[in-house]
Structures are given as C-alpha cells and as structure tokens.
C-alpha cells in the first residue's frame, strides 16, 4: 500500500488545491492503511477508520497491544491517525457492546448500520453455478451450507475432521471448499472415499461460489462457518441459525454473542487438540438441523435477528446520520 502513497498524494494535492471542485472532506480508511493516513494528514484531510468487526470484538479485546500482537501494529498505527471510527454495527443488533466503543477507543464512534449485501435474486451467475443447480434438487430447508471465508487458518487435519463431522451428522450439506495455503499441491484434502459415501446428500464445490445466492436459496437451513462479521450478517439476513467454529480474535467475540442470543451452537473444542473434532462438529450440526426442540429455538432466534438485518429503512437512517455526523465533526 505504501507504493500507492505518491499517487494518492498527487490526487489529494489536486483535490485540495485552491479553486478545485473536487474538495475532499474525509478519507475513509481500512484497517491497515497508516501510510494513507499520513498522506491525508499532510494535506490536512481528516481520516475515518472503517471498523469492519463486531462491536463485541472491541468490548472483548479493546485496542490490541502491538508489542504482544505484532500483526496488529499496522491497525494500531492507522487507528492513531484517524479522527473518527465508523462501526459496521447497529444498536438494534449490538445494544450492549456498541455503546461502549467510544469509551473504550477514546474517539467518536459512529455506527453506519450493518450494510448487508443486496438480497439474492436476478444473479447473472445463476446459470453457471453448480452449487445453485445442486441446491435446486434438494428439499426445502434441508441443507447446511459450509464455508469458512478467505482468512480462516484452515489445515488439512481440520478439513478431515469437518468431513468426518458432516458424515457422522447424516444431514444434507453443501461445502464450499478452499484449498488451505499450508496444503501441498498434491495433497488430498478429503478423507478417502468421503465423497462416495456422502453422494446424494452432499456436494463439495471448489472455487468461488455465489454465497449470498446460496444463503438465499430455499433449500438452505443453516450456515456452518467461522463467525467472520460479514458472513454472520449475511447468514442473519436470511434468518439462518449458525454452527460456529471460531478461531481468530473477532470470530471468537461474534460467536460469543451469537451463542448468548441462542442463534446457533459453537462447536466444542478440546483443549488437547488444535482442531475441532468430527464428533463435536456432528453434535453441533444435529442440534441445529435435527433435534426438534433446539432447532426450533435456534430458528426462532435467527428469524428475530433477520428482522433487524433485513430492515433497509433502519440502515438508511444510519447512513444518513453518519453523513450528518461527519458534517458536524468536520466543522
């Protein structure tokens, strides 16, 4: 990103020049763009830090200490240089943790709403998606969708345990499988015979999949995932209960809140093992998909969350209030 600094500086210089009709009032930054914040400061343009995590993450962990967690040093440096924090959250979804953010961070925090993606429908990828074609053949609300985002620290051992859990659970599943970066190019990602043994009730798809269209499909009943904030919002947008396998910092906080809200089940992780074990994965899937009493509770609570996430008028108000707040802080 540092290599973009000269071009960004030239752009801001022209935009901030006397007589320019492209005046820049704010620069909105992602987590790791401290060099861009330095450029903006040189041109006297204030910065906003886009906080893409749940407010619960801030409540649980505050501002990371880069001396303990060096990977967060760019985030901390960017945070220091920003005047305002934009939080992808809402008081309706996070009534306990969102009000705490300003005190914890020591800077104004403005919620921008949940920013759910546009509802699935009319997807031009539709005819080319093997995943959606397979879902078309499944009964309504019968499939658990399995995906773990782009940053999940997946291992081949964990993939094998997931496969074992899906096989033991006995439910229908659609698995969007991504090859882990630690896997050898010739290494088999699935246990021998797994796809043959689950043929007819399971589908493993590699490569890109249209996730929002999958979540919006009538055959999908639940989402087994890592609890990244974006994927959690997408799941709740369609009222799906969760089977949660959190590992990273923000995933743990989001999973904590979703478990407290009884929106799903966090897979139990044995202290003696680095991976979530297949037996525990199967138990969690059955609780969400098969056991009627727990399933009813999880579905009902996920539907309550859906009412919040799918409220477009509410999110528009947050955006309007965000813009008005920026005018206030600018002045």
TrEMBL record:
Presence of keyword Glycosyltransferase: yes
Pfam families noted in UniProt: UDPGT
The UniProt GO MF terms for this protein read:
UDP-glucosyltransferase activity
Q: Which UniProt keywords apply?
A: Glycosyltransferase, Transferase
Tagged with keyword Transferase: yes
Q: Which family does it belong to?
A: Belongs to the UDP-glycosyltransferase family.
Q: What is this protein called?
A: Anthocyanidin 3-O-glucosyltransferase
